[in-house]
Design brief:
The chain is mostly helical and 119 residues long. 73% of the residues lie in helices and 0% in strands.
């Protein structure tokens, strides 16, 4: 199983030109991926006022499903999805995000484990 690329803390910074390329290539998915990262942060840090671990996991799972639909709408790796599956495509997309937004490494590591359980 493939995993989201992660980097050592402090070795990379946000690449704004890559971010703009990803946003243009996948306009529906870009914002959804940011939502997934926010839910992943709450899941990893076990935080959220009045929320349980189960509800944080459910929110993260729902956000992942929303992103998967948006990736289809954007036509992202549709052919590869037929061969490799939904989880593989999501992990590839988050690898692009990790290359671009490297300050979410704990969240990417958690997503590498969480995403395959969703499909």
């Amino acid at each position: 199983m493939n995993e989201i690329r992660v980097y050592q803390p402090g070795t990379r910074t946000t690449d704004y030109s890559k971010a703009e390329q990803i946003r243009k290539r996948t306009p529906n998915s870009f914002k959804k991926a940011q939502h997934v990262l926010n839910y992943a942060a709450k899941y990893v840090k076990n935080q959220g006022l009045f929320s349980s671990e189960k509800s944080r996991a459910q929110n993260l799972q729902n956000a992942i499903y929303d992103l998967e639909k948006a990736l289809d709408q954007d036509g992202f790796m549709l052919e590869e999805k037929k061969t490799n599956g939904k989880a593989w495509v999501l992990i590839e997309y988050f690898s692009l995000f990790s290359d671009t937004f490297p300050n979410w490494q704990k969240e990417y590591q958690a997503l590498s484990k969480f995403i395959p359980k969703c499909f």
